[in-house]
Amino acid sequence: MKIHVDRTLCDNHGQCTITAPSVFRIDDQGILQYEENVDDSLRADIEDSMDVCPVQAIFIVTED
Ligand code: SF4
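^ Those are the sequences you sent over. The predicted structure of the assembly is below.
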């Protein structure tokens, strides 16, 4: 599946890096980086990340 983070909403505090550390990380500049193309086996982790994101910035764009 493909995911998208709305950077106009994201606060870069990184709750999503805890729920899906293989997809989301905070870089040396303190900015969220993420993989756009995510294996479907990580769907539960992505859904957890969507749930914990305080500003609802994470979206699933396409399903596999
Ligand atoms: S949890 Fe949401 S607001 Fe926080 S870094 Fe991740 S995408 Fe951005």
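The first helix runs from residue 15 to 19. Residues 1 and 38 are 5 Å apart (CA to CA).

Shout if you want it in another format.
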